[in-house]
Amino acid sequence: MMKRLGLILIVLLLAATAHAQTGTIVGRVIDKETKEPLTGARVYVKEKRLGATANVNGDFKILHVPTGIHSLGAFYVEFFDSTAHNITVQSDSSTEVLFMLRRSHYSADPGCGERPLIDKTQTTSGRIFNESHYFYPVGR
User: What pTM, to 2 d.p., does this model score?
Assistant: First the structure.
């Protein structure tokens, strides 16, 4: 009985210790030139499958990041990707990171790939007839 109780205590202590081995990364993603927040920018921990999306204010929060030194990446449409190296995450604490992304010289043409919902130049029409409906009795 005492061995079982001791084993349960050890398992609980190990679980609590393992849970305490993570931290949080918080920060903001902004346009380097205008200092405007980049809503929807993606930020991720390069070595892990962890990431977050910036909110309306450009703020993001990545939870449960293992303690240690990490590299972060950030990307947004029509902006150059950015990387932050040597970001230290400590147990049960928050690490702040600021990403300032530069606009790329390539931009998407907003009119590219659009077409009207109804093609007004189409002048043909068609009907499909099925003879089988003439052979079935109607109204019975």
Answer: 0.64
Is 55 in contact with 27 (CB distance < 8 Å)? Answer: no
- pLDDT tens digits for 81-138? 999 999 999 999 999 999 999 999 765 555 565 666 666 676 666 665 566 655 656 6
Token pair for 85: 């190296």
CATH T-level topology, domain 21-101: Immunoglobulin-like (2.60.40)
Q: Domain map of the chain by residue range?
A: 21-101
In whole angstroms, what is the distance from residue 14 CA to residue 31 CA?
Answer: 44
Cα radius of gyration rounded to whole Å, the chain: 29
Q: Which helix (H) or strand (E) holds 96?
A: strand 94-101
Any alpha helices (H) in the chain, and if so which ranges? 2-19
